[in-house]
Amino acid sequence: MKTTMKAQVFYEPCVMRMEEVPVPEVADNQVLVRVRACGICGSDLAYYYGKSPLETANGKGPLILGHEFSGEVAQVGRIAREMKLFEVGDRVLANPVQNCNACPECAREQVNLCKNTRTSGVNFNGAFAEYALVNYTHLHKISDDISFEQAALCEPLACACYGVKKLDVKLGDFVVIFGPGTLGLMQLKLIRASGAGKIAMVGILDYGLEKAREMGADYVFNTLDKNSPYYTDDLAKSISEITDGDMANRAIVPTAAKSALQGALDVTGRGANIVYFGLPGEDTILEVPLLHTLQMDKRINVSWLAPFTWDTAIKSMKAGFVTPEEFVTHRFRLEELEQAIAFMSDNSKPEKIKGMVLMD
């Protein structure tokens, strides 16, 4: 096996270099994965442009980003080898958020709140490289009928599953989703499968809204572009007219836009459930009309990471809920990562959903 590998090493905002670095050594509790596909997440864009600090000791690089990945087992550490859990050549996908399984939070089944979590591409080297390390407890085998691209979509799908679980959709509910990006569209499909009556998608770019229509949204609304055929200058009024004044039963916000965070309060009615899912900035403050919200008996929830949803996500993937044909609009080589990040960040080029880095 080779001793060096190609990797995109992030140093500081807007500074990333393609380098030849040592292949990481495998500890007893780890497995080395030959990366085949790695999705470009919104958090990767935030780290690259300095909008969010890394979770390294000093919040900075050098670090290999990338956490939505799949590949083949290249080397198996002692524990997994002795337990015969994995073999070289196994096709796998990784849960990048690797909790310790030993702290009080893990014991309470709050693994997404583990204080000792290590996350690929966030506080240790990730998968924008030829090889990546994973704890054997956070690696899942995949069958031959799931492509590496499809498997790399499983990380955002697992997060989407957790958000929809917390949304607690009831049969016939009217649901509003804010943001037709990768996660919003995944949640659209999951919410439809959960028995929602009608679903409205809200966004600011028609390309994503039209994708939502294709995937089953009953209504789409553009709250920014006055030239859009889907434009509304009063979203709450539009929802009220559709629901005969009852407003939405459920709203989920897979975006960090403050207008969307606030809008979820405006479009929901009595006994509604709201789930905040997108990652806001440290200074984002939500203003809750408390008396009105209390009198309407609304529930406000948040969704963080993907605890105990990986099995659901993998089964949903096998069932065809999510396919690369629907979600992956652009593919890049590892050498093109910086150009890919710039492209995926450019709102003047709206016709995109998910970018994927393919190693072959």
What does this structure look like?
- It is a single chain.
- With 360 residues, the protein is an alpha/beta fold.
- The protein is 28% helix and 28% strand.
- The chain has helices at residues 42-48, 78-82, 104-107, 148-152, 154-167, 182-193, 206-214, 235-242, 258-267, 290-295, 310-318, 324-327, 337-345; strands at 4-12, 15-22, 30-40, 63-64, 68-76, 91-94, 97-98, 118-119, 131-135, 139-141, 174-178, 198-203, 219-222, 248-253, 268-276, 299-302, 328-332, 354-358.
- The strands form four sheets. Strands 3, 5, 6, 9, 10, 17 and 18 form a seven-stranded mixed beta sheet that branches. It has a six-stranded parallel beta sheet with strand order 13-12-11-14-15-16, with helices on both faces.
- Helix 1 (42-48) packs across helix 13 (337-345) and helix 5 (154-167) crosses helix 11.
- The longest helix has 14 residues, at 154-167.
- It is globular.
- The model has no long low-confidence stretch (mean pLDDT 96).
Class inferred from helices and paired strands: alpha/beta
In helices, the fraction of residues equals 25-40%
Low-confidence stretches: none
Anisotropy-based shape: globular
Keyword list:
360 residues, alpha/beta, seven-stranded mixed beta sheet, six-stranded parallel beta sheet, 28% helix, 28% strand, globular
Task: Provide a concise account of the structure shown.
With 360 residues, this protein is α/β, with parallel strands linked by helices.
Helices and strands in order:
Elements: E1 4-12, E2 15-22, E3 30-40, H1 42-48, E4 63-64, E5 68-76, H2 78-82, E6 91-94, E7 97-98, H3 104-107, E8 118-119, E9 131-135, E10 139-141, H4 148-152, H5 154-167, E11 174-178, H6 182-193, E12 198-203, H7 206-214, E13 219-222, H8 235-242, E14 248-253, H9 258-267, E15 268-276, H10 290-295, E16 299-302, H11 310-318, H12 324-327, E17 328-332, H13 337-345, E18 354-358
Helix pairs in contact: 1-13, 5-6, 5-11
